Amino acid sequence: MNWDDIRIFLSIARTGQILAAARRLGLNHATVARRLTALEDSVGTRLFDRSTSGCVLTDAGTRFFDRAERIEAEALAAEADFGGDTPGITGTVRIGAPDGFGVAYLAPRLGQLTARHPGLTVQLVPVPRSFSLSRREADIAVTIDRPDTGRLVAGKLVDYSLGLYASKTYLKEHGTPNSPSDLSAHDLIGYVEDLLYSPSLNYGAEISRDWTARFEIASALGQTEAVRGGAGIGILHDFIARDDSTLVAVLPELKLKRAYWMVTHESSRPLRHVAAVQDFLRDQVARDKAIFG
Fold first, then answer.
1. Would the pTM count as exceeding 0.85?
2. Structural domains of the chain, ranges and CATH numbers in brackets
3. Which 3 state secondary structure label does DSSP give 2?
């Protein structure tokens, strides 16, 4: 059994298409299809149901996928241990994070990490969505929910709080609510409900049963900018909004509590460059823990 064929199998399984896997691997489409056939002949069974719309793992393929990932983990560990004589941290690590945490918190701090390790490249993908570590969309994912399926390793990064905020100009024009029931008379800003990728993002329901947003934005930073621009009252991350002189905390006794989790795939454990980024993230949020409360 050829390791390169296993690598191709994993890429097809993660992308769901031979063409997409070929692009990811930098190989010809026909070559990838031929190597997959060779692997299936080697193991003596069909690993994918192939169709014009993509490739779906068969039952045998699903069982093989688990073994293939373990082989990949050992190969990566061997490469990390014996791949070079330099003791430095090198390689590329992609971090997937919610946009509020990724842009407002991580982006200004990651320069310290790359300065510490000149051979390290960090890719930050701060978008309001979840990431599949099994499909290798990211090496490290910062999530708002702890995953409970898959071969993933998760640890709490930090607890954080959210609260109601409005701009000074909005409150001057519309007045300040004195209770949650008063919010129904105000312009409210929230998420696009059918684009919520986690129930934990349904903040409004925890503030008021009558929460109905007139302005919906599928981005934490977009909501912050809308509130800052005077569009209404929104539920913002305290670590982003608290020190903004243009914003005022509304009903400050109302606080929501959430947590960020740092998640990696089990196969990433032996990789020194991934571990170095994890250590950096843990150290940074531990040092800045007070701003998240």
1. no
2. 3-82 (1.10.10.10), 91-149+266-292 (3.40.190.10), 159-259 (3.40.190.10)
3. coil
